[in-house]
Structure formats: C-alpha cells, structure tokens
Design a protein that fits this description.
By secondary structure, the protein is α/β, with parallel strands linked by helices. The protein contains 7 helices and 5 strands, in the order E-E-H-E-E-H-E-H-H-H-H-H. Helices cover 45% and strands 12% of the residues. The protein has a 5-stranded mixed β-sheet. The radius of gyration is 17 Å and the shape is globular. The model is unreliable at 1-5 (pLDDT under 50).
Amino acid sequence: MTDTDTPYRRVPIDLVEEPTNALRPVNTESPAFKELVESMKSEGFWPSKPIEVTPGPPYIVNDGMTRLYAARSAELTHVWVSITVQISETERLERALSSNALVVHTRPADYGRALAALSEAHPGWTLEMVAAKVHKSVEWVQQRLKVASLTGPAADLVNA
C-alpha cells in the first residue's frame, strides 16, 4: 500500500512523540500487547489503524499510545498516522478521558490521577463540569478522584 492509497500518512517512528499527559501507562506486559507486537513484527503496521497525532513534526500522539509502543517494540521504522488539528495538553487529556471512559482496562486510580490533572488545569470547573466533559456521572468522577493519590499496593487493590 502506498501513501496515495489511504487518507493517512506513513511517517518515521522517530518523529512521533508521546504527550506529556498520558491517561495511563502502556501495559507492555499484557498478553494483548505482546500479541500486537508479534502481529506488527509479522504483518507490519496496519494503515487501517493509524495513530492519531497533531500536525508535526514532531507528531504528538492524541490516540494510539499502545500502537506506538508496540511498533517501537517490534522495531518498526515507520508508522501510519492520521493527522488531526493541533490541541493543547489539556484538550488531549479531556479526549483521552472521554474516549476511554468505557474501556475496561483503564484502572480507577489511573482515571483518578487524570481527572485530578484535568481539574487542576481548569480551577474554576465544578465536579458537574468535569463529569459532563467525560460523559460520566458526578458520582463516577468523585469515586475516581478519591483514589487519585493512591499508589503501590493500595492502588493495586482498588484497581483490581
């Protein structure tokens, strides 16, 4: 497939950078991650599942951190990207929270820390405003904010 066969662009992986505010760390030990790496080693990076990035270079990831990490682990030199509008770190965090709110593998403590960062970025926002932004109830936001400062075994227990 060539660059002209798709609305996406193939770029050197070294030009794609992580955002400073990621929702959660990529679990490079999960079976799903390892399967993705093996798939990329054998089949390459699928242009039908591009990494969403801001204009660059450098291209900053808006969505697709797991795909980026897997491509790096597979030692690929290029990835497919979908270039979107330039957004701020706060907007990136808002989008990640909203789009991942229904994803089971996002752990409560990770959400709590990201929601706390979002609240700090918008000091005038109420809990209702934060909840509306991530399309969740105020109670859901409150529960995750309560565990935002947990680390180590306490965070592991809540996340389990």
